[in-house]
Amino acid sequence: MGTTLEKEIKRRKTFGIISHPDAGKTTLTEKLLLFGGAIQEAGAVKSNKIKKGAASDFMEIERQRGISVATSVLAFEYKGKKINILDTPGHKDFAEDTYRTLTAVDSVIVVIDVAKGVEEQTEKLVQVCRMRNIPMLVFINKLDREGKDAFDLLDEVEQKLHLRVTPLSWPIGMGLDFQGIFNMWENNLKFFTEEKKQKIGDSIEIKDINDNLINDFIGDQAAENLRNEQELIHSVYPKFSKEEYLNGTLQPVFFGSALNNFGVQELLDAFVEIAPNPLPKMSDIRLVRPEETNFTGFVFKIHANMDPKHRDRLAFVKIVSGIFKRNTNYLHVRQNKMMKFSSPAAFFADKKEVVEESYPGDIVGLHDTGNFRIGDTLTEGEKLNFKGIPSFSPEHFRYINNEDPMKTKQLAKGIDQLMDEGVAQLFTLEMNNRKIIGTVGALQFEVIQYRLEHEYSAKCSYEPVHIHKACWVETDDEKSTEFLEFKRVKQKFLAKDKFGQLVFLADSAFSISMTLEKFPSIKLHFTNEF
Ligand code: GDP
């Protein structure tokens, strides 16, 4: 018999769904919640998609979320497990938001459209997961439509995503001829009937692949195909190993149709059985294990209140170890300040509510008036900082100018807080203190302008600046002649990020390679984490 803490840890599974927009992430999320009984009908989960690619669209989504922040974390119970789904924006302009959320998940499900195959955004996100050895399950969606051949698709997943896959379910036909799936995980066949759309289809148990029942249900030809395909699968793909899945070296694949609620339960049943419980996390001084009695956690997301009358924000904290308790003093490590929280929020599919206690794997939302920054750590007193929330070099850069001299303070505060939320990155030129905003997508510039005006009553304008990449500068010796020479020559291109780290704002790829050649003792990094 374990303690309550140990029992609660074993019950928890915190994961994210990643995909290219339109592959079916929202639909799958919704079907998972239906199984968990967390929602009653389809259509309850709001898509976080930015359709027109306009800032107004984004703002509308954010406003709606402000009202029901629950969409950032969706929790439900299934087979005695508490499952937390963390929402990840699919739009590429918000990729950084997704990278940060991935630091708070213990596993992911990758959704791929059977017709489109592996798409750009999936590649990028999977790469991040691979780097962190996050366990991944793959769900190939939209089997009710004509798509690519299943074997070809697995090849594509292996090649483009550099994954080592093994199917745990297999489609029988596809598109108009889609008959169902053979569940290799549980050895049964499930039949597809489109009329049953939102309902769970019938399935038959079979003893093995040579069972004649298969012929009775899908016909001799399809049965023979299935047997041949199974033989091929067994000779080509590795046998499933939970251990390899957990250490990120093997990725099981499932097929289905989220829209028709088909193949989703197979995925969920396998997920609850194999997906990891909350994992230990590395800090700057030691590995922190969930079972430790002292609470620790870190902020991976900050959500601003879109109502200008209440400028408070919600900081999302992932609990790493121990039990988080309401109204208890915790150390905000970066500020070296004790803080307590009277109304920490827990999230469910359709609501958020104040919680007394939360366990590792859970997310709590803390009301914040500007104390938190993404990456901040909370502990019971120990001075440790969790690692792994990097900033990547932005893709777009612009000078930001103050358009209303009477509102200089508001502007500075607004910029500061928006940067804390991780909306964009700020670089201050060493030479003249001019401020440059760097973003992942062009959309953020509009978002920043809009929010500065509506939330901080400040006005800004932008001016083009020619920068190719931001490179974080590393040197072993700040006093070396070489480093001083580098600083002299590159004076015009040097800036500080918001943590005071030195950044070289290179105007071309050529300039980066020339710099590296000329100053061999200096290292340039495209992320601030090195
Ligand atoms: P997201 O952008 O990844 O969240 O994708 P959505 O869940 O919003 O789905 C995008 C579109 O694909 C919507 O029109 C869905 O109805 C549709 N869709 C999702 N799953 C399926 C499926 O299994 N079959 C078919 N035919 N369409 C699907």
UniProtKB/TrEMBL annotation:
Report the record's Gene Ontology biological process terms.
regulation of translational termination
Read off the InterPro entries from this record: EF-G-like_DII (IPR053905), EFG_III/V (IPR035647), G_TR_CS (IPR031157), P-loop_NTPase (IPR027417), PrfC (IPR004548), RF3_C (IPR032090), RF3_dom_3_sf (IPR038467), Small_GTP-bd (IPR005225)
What's any one GO cellular component for it?
cytosol
Keyword Protein biosynthesis in record: yes
Q: Keywords on this record?
A: Cytoplasm, GTP-binding, Nucleotide-binding, Protein biosynthesis
Where does it localize?
A: Cytoplasm
The UniProt annotation places GTP binding at 19-26, 87-91, 141-144
Q: Does the keyword Nucleotide-binding apply?
A: yes
Q: Which parts of the sequence belong to the Tr-type G domain? A: 10-279
Domain of life where this protein originates: Bacteria
Supply the CDD domains for this chain.
RF3_III (cd16259)
Any GO MF annotation of the entry = translation release factor activity, codon specific
What does the UniProt record say this protein does?
Answer: Increases the formation of ribosomal termination complexes and stimulates activities of RF-1 and RF-2. It binds guanine nucleotides and has strong preference for UGA stop codons. It may interact directly with the ribosome. The stimulation of RF-1 and RF-2 is significantly reduced by GTP and GDP, but not by GMP.
Q: Which family does it belong to?
A: Belongs to the TRAFAC class translation factor GTPase superfamily. Classic translation factor GTPase family. PrfC subfamily.
Q: What is this protein called?
A: Peptide chain release factor 3
Q: What is the scientific name of the source organism?
A: Apibacter mensalis
